[in-house]
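[job 4471] stage=fold_predict status=RUNNING
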Amino acid sequence: MIIVQKATIKKLEDLAQIFDLYRIFYKKESDIEGATQFLKERLENNESVIYVAIYEENEQIVGFVQLYPLFSSTRMQKLWLLNDLYVMKEYRNGGISKMLIEASKNLCIETNACGLMLETAKDNIIGNQLYPATDFVLDTEHNFYFWDNS
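[job 4471] inference complete, writing structure tokens
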């Protein structure tokens, strides 16, 4: 059985392991130490909310979603950025992503936020099927721009 709960600093080492797998999935070099430090700072400074999917039988984290708070000036409300969503390969196609998205939606409701936003690559076939299936609407009216400082 899979349960979804808010991540705490107590599970930092396990969370860093799956976060590292997520980064590797996106073609980044493995960096457990960096992942641990990054997540520790986010959790300790309340800079993000992370939900983890845990396989109850062995208490293994098999998926996670990380959300960052933003604000909508025109709506004068909080807005959440669903920045990271990952499920370990062997646990995919079991509804875990949908469970993590549902937890994200509940956070939005609990914090009186006006919505959730996310971006995904145009060639992310799975994501581009998942998000509409969980009631996200593709924004075709706005342009997305990015300035890279690297």
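[job 4471] summary: The longest strand covers residues 60-72.
[job 4471] exit 0
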